[in-house]
Write a structure and sequence with these properties.
Helices cover about 50% and strands about 15% of the residues. The protein is an alpha/beta fold. The protein is globular and about 55 Å long.
Length: about 270
Amino acid sequence: METILITGASSGIGRALAIHLAEKGYQIVIVARNLNRLEETVQQVPAAARNIHPYVMDVSDFDSVNKTANLILEEWGHIDVLVNNAGYGLKGPLEFLEAREIQEQFQTNVFGLMELTRLFIPEMRKRNRGKIINVSSVLGRMPLPFNGAYSASKFALEGLSENLRLELAPFGISVSIIEPGYIDTEFATNQTKGIRLEETKSPYKLYQHKYLRRQNTFRRPAKVDKVAVTIAKAIESKSPKLRYLVGVDAHYAMFLKSIMPDRLFNYILGRVLT
């Protein structure tokens, strides 16, 4: 059975995927910052606990990434599939985000992911096989207000993934992107708010409240297990697709975006959300 590394496996999509794949018999290496949360993931699947192996890694810290990645390679020899799932959302209008907050968003969602991926490519290339699966978001291809930094990080991930798919294809390595819509996880609750988001003098305040109220009205979250099943499909495919959309909202939004001029699409989006 293949060995699969999943980042951000202490909750949400990462945890659901680890459990799903462990039950299918794969050897799963899971990483996150909090060892106790990783142990909780293992405890949720007692029948297949022997298939899940936790390691501590902070993907935003290059030293941590290098140390843990080298340890995993030393103990496992290679990884067949790398699932880059770790990430978080930063909420707020760009004008009211601090430079440090934006840098931290990209450090986790883009730069840490790039460093980790870079470290596992050589063994995949030598074996002339491997899969890299990057968990992006539908916001990596369409806009939503007050998610500019997060969306920009996912747009960057989309571009990186397309480049890597071309770059690594001659070496038998496939690259796929998972694009969930609104998923029933703690992601939205755990989104980091810009420290200036609630400033009383913010000209965006009324707009933000209207947007959040409308957004919550239209949201119909998909189950997190649906994402896990979709990623498993990409892992088990002999010819994985570049993109996998997850959720009715993601499919609907991308369909409309593909058939409408940008001006009309953004006008409708603005009318719905404000």
